[in-house]
Write a structure and sequence with these properties.
By secondary structure, the protein is mostly beta strands. The chain is built from no helices and 13 strands.
Length: 185
């Protein structure tokens, strides 16, 4: 799907791209609606981010846009963490030198947030990852993620890779202990 000069694709598999709208500006972000169907990675392929496209988010980067991902959980498992990673070459981490980032800079407008995860942790090095956590997306539910993507050396194509992490262990909630009152005092 091509919108405002950027092409979004689900060709890498693991999810279905349902729609894409917007211009990529902060007040009119690209809104990509997806349905994740598998357990593995889901890599959104993005092309068209060039110097001619420009920077639509006001950071000091050569090119950039605001992105809202609306992701439906069409799997049978709840998502408790949701890492999103940028990759210039599929399967390789995005190092500092490739210019691709989630608006990495001292005074950048990061604007990273989610409606179902209370926290988001940024990792700029050695790879560009946002880990959304402290929440849950049950099967059939939808999560909305807001990110900024920038690039100082735009490549023909890059990837927004999503993973759903299942906990390896968890603690049961603390049990309430009934307190009894002694009759004698």
């Amino acid at each position: 799907m091509t919108v405002a000069g950027i092409t979004f694709s689900d060709a890498e598999g693991g999810f279905v791209l349902e729609s894409a709208t917007g211009t990529g500006q902060l007040d009119d972000p690209f809104v990509v609606v997806e349905r994740i169907t598998g357990k593995g990675e889901a890599a959104l392929s993005v092309s068209g981010l060039t110097p001619a496209f420009g920077n639509r988010v006001g950071t000091a980067h050569l090119a950039g846009f605001a992105l809202v991902k609306v992701v439906r959980n069409a799997t049978t498992e709840a998502w408790r963490d949701f890492p999103v990673e940028l990759q210039e070459r599929r399967g390789d981490q995005s190092p500092y030198g490739d210019g691709l980032s989630f608006a990495q800079a001292p005074a950048a407008i990061r604007s990273i947030r989610s409606d179902r995860f209370a926290a988001a942790q940024m990792f700029d090095e050695p790879r560009d990852v946002v880990l959304f956590h402290d929440g849950m997306v049950a099967p059939g539910e939808t999560v909305t993620l807001r990110i900024i993507v920038t690039d100082n050396t735009p490549a023909a194509r890059f990837y927004v890779v999503q993973r759903r992490i299942q906990p390896t262990a968890s603690l049961s909630p603390p049990r309430r202990v009934a307190r009894t009152r002694r009759a004698d005092g």
